[in-house]
Amino acid sequence: MIKRAALILIAFGFLWVAHGASGHDGATGIIKVRMNEMEQLGSQMNTLAKMAKGEIPVNAKQITASATEMVRIADNIPDLFPPNSLEKPSEATATIWSNWPNFKIEAASLSVLASQLGADAGTLSTPKDLQNQLAAIGKTCKTCHKAYRIKK
Model pTM? Predict the structure, then answer.
């Protein structure tokens, strides 16, 4: 189950980064800022996923740096979604604002999980060590996207 979840997370990360590179056309203001931040979040996940797959060495310094950046972004997610900022090419749905308390809980959950990953970085030495935490982070991302992002 853990390997399957990790593979799903890895595939999700690659798609997220690839989509971010082409999905910003015409974005301005806060929508462009949030798209860039979400792309950066995806980039951090992509790096960590490569470690979890054994494509690159597990590196505590890089895990800490990625986790720190993910916490920074997660903590700012609510500010990236001012009320009704839905102009194209935004992929946000209005459900964010009709379910604002839960949206903030999801962002806080991402922050907590990323913070825990950073705290554990020194104890993670193999791809398998990293897989469980990445699977939990990926599940949080997926839950939020399923509820609050335009379906592709």
Answer: 0.84
